[in-house]
Design brief:
The structure is a single chain. Helix content is 36%, strand content 17%. By secondary structure, the chain is an alpha/beta fold. The strands form two sheets. It has a seven-stranded parallel sheet, with helices on both faces. α5 links the parallel β9 and β10. The longest helix has 15 residues. The protein is globular. GO terms for molecular function: glycosyltransferase activity. This is Glycosyl transferase family 1 domain-containing protein.
Length: 364
């Protein structure tokens, strides 16, 4: 199939640092190309891909000085997509909702993956208005706040099988926290759990401007209070394997309806078990007692830390291989593209449109 992938412009594809959606767009795009599809990626100009890249901006907007409003740039991207829409058998959007009013002419060939939380009060009326668009959830739990809409599938995220090498031997004996410093991620819980368990906690996390006060007022004092806490800051993809692979466990003490939680399967790919609070997608991603432990309190989390030695890292990696590879994700999406009511799976369609088929018949 000839497939368009339309990515957010905040980060490059893949992102240089933090950026879960753009990372998934990259993994999906590369896996689809590897599986023989012809893929065009609409993204920032500093993206790296084996697909055809349509650069909308010179670089990712988050890293470009002077960018105040990202919407005009996404409108430019949507116009570029509209001009080329007839070329594609399926068009896959990863930009939430901006495009929905603009794609009615080719709605039967479109898929929109919703990557964020859906429990915000302004979203139900919007999606009720555009209820005929094919939507993909990244967990079943993510769907709960939504009105009746046209769900195409739930498709879990996946990583390239060789992206993170599993660490199956001895680890360095610390607990890991990876992600963002924000109230819903609950780094304060991670700090208290590690302190009570008597283990070192290493925190690799970005601090967005909106969360700067939370860091300074709530988390930084805890980091200074406990001598077993080490704040590393934001890390890149190359550093992630060593960081997660060296940990005895990943702490995922969230306090919000997590749509998926990419860091959980990144840890699993390293053979590192996950201790996660029962929120959002966690029960769908973690197999309790196999790839980690699901807990409901800090007391249970402290107890789970004592039990992680009983989980074989080879088994944790096995759960990842069975459920969360990029090849599986791409195959699931390709199957959905084929089911779209307006999908063009006949490669001769575009040749006929261009008049190439009649030329081939004359030559024959």
């Amino acid at each position: 199939m000839k497939i368009a992938q339309i990515a957010p412009l905040a980060e490059s594809v893949p992102p240089k640092l933090y950026g879960g959606t753009e990372r998934i767009v990259s993994y999906l795009t590369e896996a689809l190309v590897h599986q023989g599809h012809e893929v065009t990626l609409f993204a920032s100009g500093d993206s790296q891909t084996s697909a055809e890249l349509v650069p909308i901006t010179p670089a990712a907007l988050r890293l470009t000085p002077g960018i105040v409003d990202t919407i005009p740039y996404h409108m430019m991207m949507l116009d570029a997509v509209r001009q080329r829409a007839d070329e594609f058998d399926a068009l896959h959007f990863h930009i939430d909702l901006l495009h929905l009013p603009m794609i009615q002419d080719f709605i039967g060939r479109t898929v929109t993956t919703l990557h964020g939380r859906l429990d915000l009060p302004d979203l139900p009326p919007f999606y009720r208005c555009f209820g005929d668009h094919c939507l993909v959830s990244i967990s079943d739990h993510q769907r709960q706040p939504m009105p009746p809409v046209n769900w195409g599938a739930t498709i879990y995220h996946g990583l390239p099988a060789d992206l993170l090498t599993p660490s199956l031997g001895e680890n360095e004996g610390y607990l890991a926290f990876l992600g963002r410093i924000s109230p819903e991620k609950r780094p304060d819980r991670a700090i208290r759990i590690a302190a009570r368990a008597g283990m070192e906690l290493r925190i690799a996390a970005k601090i967005d401007a909106v969360d700067r006060a939370y860091w300074e007022e709530e988390i930084a004092p805890l980091v200074k209070l406990y001598p077993n806490i080490r704040f590393i800051g934001e890390i890149n993809e190359r550093e992630k394997a060593d960081f997660l692979g060296g940990a005895s466990a990943l702490l995922f003490p969230i306090d919000w309806p997590e749509p998926f939680g990419l860091v959980m399967i990144e840890a699993m790919a390293c053979g590192t078990p996950v201790i996660a609070f029962r929120c959002g997608s966690v029960p769908e991603v973690i197999e309790d007692g196999r790839s980690g432990f699901i807990v409901d309190s800090e007391d249970e989390a402290v107890e789970a830390v004592k039990q992680i030695r009983h989980l074989e890292r080879k088994m944790v990696r096995g759960v990842f291989d069975a459920r969360f590879t990029a090849d599986r994700m791409a195959a699931d999406y390709a199957a959905l593209y084929h089911r779209l009511p307006g999908a063009r799976t006949d490669a001769a369609w575009l040749r006929r449109r261009r008049g190439e088929e009649s030329e081939l018949q004359i030559v024959a």
